[in-house]
Records
---
Amino acid sequence: STYYNENSIKGQFARIVLAAPTNYYTTNKSLCGGPSSRVLHHHKARISLRMLAHKRVAVYLGIYMMFMWLTGRTMFWGVFISFIILVVIAAFRQLTQPKPSLLDT
């Protein structure tokens, strides 16, 4: 969660891989008929696998793993190269995004 808000390559990488921290409310109903109360809860930044649920991503991953298998690479190299690609994407985003100013808050 601390990396998620950083303005660095680590922060960009965290924003690619992690889901944003969120606040949500739950409703607690009272047993004696009084008004229900709302309780605030917080989810920290966490790994999100939602992007893997798309069929297109599954096909791309299958093609990628097939390519790695055909070139004689192991699963470790597939994951390692994927990590390197994500770091390069994070560095590119860090270099191309405008710097936030105090007027944006």
Note: The CA atoms of residues 21 and 45 lie 4 Å apart.
---
Amino acid sequence: ANFRALSSGINAEYGDGWEERYTNDGVKYYVDHNARKTTFQDPRVTMTSGSGASVPYERSYQWKFGQFRHICGRASIQQGHIKICVSRTSVFEDSFNQIINVPAQDLRRRLFISFKGEEGLDYGGLAREWFFLLSHEMLNPMYCLFEYASKNNYSLQINPASYVNPHHLTYFKFVGRVIALALFHNKYIDKGFTLPFYKRILDKPLTMLDLKSVDEDFYNSLKWVKENDLEECDVELYFAHEFEVLGEVKVHELKPGGEEILVTAENKDEYVNLMVGWRFTRGVSEQYNAFIQGFNEIVNVKWLQYFDERELEVMLVGIQDIDIQDWNMHTIYRHYKRTDKQIQWFWTFIKEISDEQRSRMLQFVTGTCRLPIGGFRELMGSNGPQKFCIERVGKENWLPRSHTCFNRLDLPPYRSYTVLKEKLLLAIEETEGFGNE
């Protein structure tokens, strides 16, 4: 493997005896010469302070992004380019026929995009336009490959009924290649996926809470099961579930013999976990496997190990220019007044932070970093139009919470700007465990 030694002994950044190396695919890993072991885990994460307490190594989004761009640069093929010529009226099919038949390695060359009947050299602008037009078409629910997560969530997920197209698995492999190409060549796509879909790409465990943004009714039913005594409520459930695809009712057993296994107080946690796993994979396992196969041919998912699902969304769909004045103008308040000091501090915080952090705040509260064409005044919630809302909830020692179905931020009445800033930064940088709902 290619490698670059950090030092011959003590290294101030990684510690004594550590060495940084790269696999042939360009993935960074670390060698612990003291223990004679290798790991993909950055050793700085588990270093301790002088008192022996664990000190986490803070990675900013820019640091992670820089690492990923470095890996892509090492994996790119410098010689030559790959030429793709499409018609604007058939950009989906033209792109499909060319990309699916090109060896994956060749797609790591520089892209040279041209549109039939148009003159122009591609210095990046045509490639950006091509990714936008192609993603707009191939992710269009009209083609039955993807569907909206719900009636009020326009993020995309795989459509279980995609099999109506007999070649759908080849198309999913193609989509996987295109999404990975966008990441590899640092371009944006037009539409975004659900956060649970990004978590699957990153091989992160899916939880019951992940269901809420994509199927609130399903989430509420499982929450009811967890919180109630089924026997007292005279409810019989079994380790099987009926679902409908294109009018056909099917039964899925969550475990062998599930139709005969009654859900009880002792096994209902297992039932809920199995239902969560099934809900995210029902009827789409083959499609997802084809997608991730195409994806991995261009970008090894290990290259994304440092990112969370929100950062992956930002990399794919970009950070919109957020108009703070528009945001302020179309925000409503509950148990706060616009003149309250906590609200004044909130807007000071929004003005001070970076574009990337503003995007993460938008994700934290609304579930996505994308805005409707009409801006903040057209934000949608679970029951239709729903403006960004800040509600006074809790005590000063509470952490901020978000309710993405209602675009609502629960902001405790912090007594100082310093505390408010600290708590909000924690919320947007370390969202896991902050009670998103």
Note: Residues 24 and 381 are 46 Å apart (CA to CA).
